[in-house]
Amino acid sequence: MSSDIEVPPVLTLPEGLVGLPDVHEVDVLPIAGGEFLELIARDERGLGWLAAAADDVRPGMTRALVESGRIAADEALIVLLASHGEPAVVTANLAGPIAVSPTGFARQLVLEDPTYDLRARLGRLAPSPVDHR
Amino acid sequence: MLVLTRRPGQSIMVGDNVELVVVRIEGDRVVLGIDAPREVRVVRAELLRDVEAENQEASAARDRIREVLTGG
Fold this sequence. Notes:
The complex is a heterodimer of chains A (about 130) and B (about 70).
Chain A: E1 10-12, E2 25-31, E3 36-41, E4 48-53, H1 54-57, H2 61-67, E5 76-84, E6 89-92, E7 98-100, E8 106-108, E9 120-121
Antiparallel strand pairs in A: 1-2, 2-3, 3-4, 4-5, 5-6, 5-7, 6-9, 7-8
Chain B: E1 11-14, E2 18-26, E3 29-35, H1 45-60, H2 62-70
Antiparallel strand pairs in B: 1-2, 2-3
């Protein structure tokens, strides 16, 4: 991830994810050279997500949530990625970011703020075409 | 479901520390004020449903997203 955040290799979600209350532990694996994360549920086989640093999608989002008291200053903020349409467009869920403590405790927020899109396009994070010259 | 009738300015307590106040009524819309502890999640039900659906769709599309992000 281009934003400088630390995400522990295992996340504990005491309350699960929204709509998925049984997802209590996920393994975190870096992918694409560490630009993104893959989250794999330990307790729910088959469930997993791709994620990015929230600030990579919406610069300043972490600071804004710290200043509004929604997250602690030492929490990292990641967002889950989805895919919509054909051809696929990758989007990030800014309305439901996940706050991660340095010890790996995580919780999904739901933000009642229309500036945080449910499906923010991931334009600038799309992989660059390989240069074969 | 409990159904209560309230007028603007009147409120309803939920538990000991959540208060819903009818601020005003505008046509077919009711404007509510909610006073709740920070740890209590207060969101529109449809937003919660949208985030829930997005979580599930994101998981279902994980392989496809990985292909897009890693170029194959």
